[in-house]
Amino acid sequence: MNVLIIAGGSSRRMGRDKSLVTRPDGGRQIDHISGLAKQISNQVYLSVRAGTPPPLDLPVIHDLRPGAGPLAALEAAAATAPGPWLAIGCDLFLLDAETLARLVEQRHPARSATCFLNRIDGRPEPLCTIYEDRALAAVSSVLDDEKYCARHFLESLDPATLELPNPVALDNANTPGELEECFAKITGGVTLKTVRVLHFAKLREERGVDHETVETYACTAGGLYEELRFRHRFSLDSSALRAAVNGDFAPWNAPVAEGDEVVFIAPV
């Protein structure tokens, strides 16, 4: 099996190259992902933007259609070698060996793809997925139609889906706040907790209730809001809000514990 590490994004919201982020253990994120990939296969490739120096010594694959997202990386991979291809996003800071082993062991070669389901919305996750040849053969026509969403493409394949052995393994980080949440999970561990969330103003309008009891793996107030934002499709970015925990204003990296009451205060 070939493995493709997809590291060709612009990292615009993070403000720096996510693959080069230093992890809590002092290593680079790209080295963490490549180390996991090499446990699966000795055929590991790196997808990076043209003109970007590769951050480590792996065979490099450049997109045939620069700027077209992860599907362009898959198209280029399929042109390099036949499948199956295991595609891994470089921003999966919580990915672990157990999760990749489960994916490989429970691969369904008779299906077009094998993947995990997102822990929040239950939809397939495209950037930790095994794509069979029949799936890869369809990528170019999808891109020709200017359809660039990797998740929509994966859903169209009717993939075999698996439950995550580690529920947070595919939580990614696109912003500094999300990175703080990932690092809090790495350093502090992951436990399921129950908190009470109060909604006011615009968030109450969008949610349709003024409070709810939430089970969450979030370690910080910021992580909790991002979970809720993803689940309920809240329109407000955290930059437009303030957080309060147990009645006191709190920074976004404030810890969230079992039984806490949390409020995200929106403009009135």
How is this structure best described in words?
With 268 residues, this protein is α/β, with parallel strands linked by helices. The protein folds into 2 domains: 161 residues, Alpha-Beta Complex (Spore Coat Polysaccharide Biosynthesis Protein SpsA, Chain A), CATH 3.90.550.10; 75 residues, Ubiquitin-like (UB roll). Helices cover 30% and strands 19% of the residues. The chain contains 9 helices and 12 strands. It has a 7-stranded mixed β-sheet with strand order 3-2-1-4-6-5-7. A 5-stranded mixed β-sheet has the order 9-8-12-10-11. Helix 1 links the parallel strand 1 and strand 2. Helix 1 runs parallel beside helix 3. The protein is globular and about 55 Å long. The mean pLDDT is 93.
| Percentage beta strand | 15-25%
Q: Look at the structure and give the mean pLDDT.
A: 93
Count of DSSP E strands? 12
Report the C-alpha radius of gyration, rounded.
19 Å
The CATH superfamily of the largest domain is known as Spore Coat Polysaccharide Biosynthesis Protein SpsA, Chain A
| Low-confidence segments | none
SSE order and pairing:
Blueprint: E1 2-6, H1 29-40, E2 44-47, E3 60-61, H2 70-80, E4 85-89, H3 97-105, E5 113-116, E6 128-131, H4 133-136, H5 139-144, H6 150-156, E7 160-162, H7 176-188, E8 193-199, H8 201-207, E9 211-216, H9 221-232, E10 242-245, E11 248-250, E12 261-265
Parallel strand pairs: 1-2, 1-4, 2-3, 5-7, 8-12
Antiparallel strand pairs: 4-6, 5-6, 8-9, 10-11, 10-12
Helix pairs in contact: 1-3
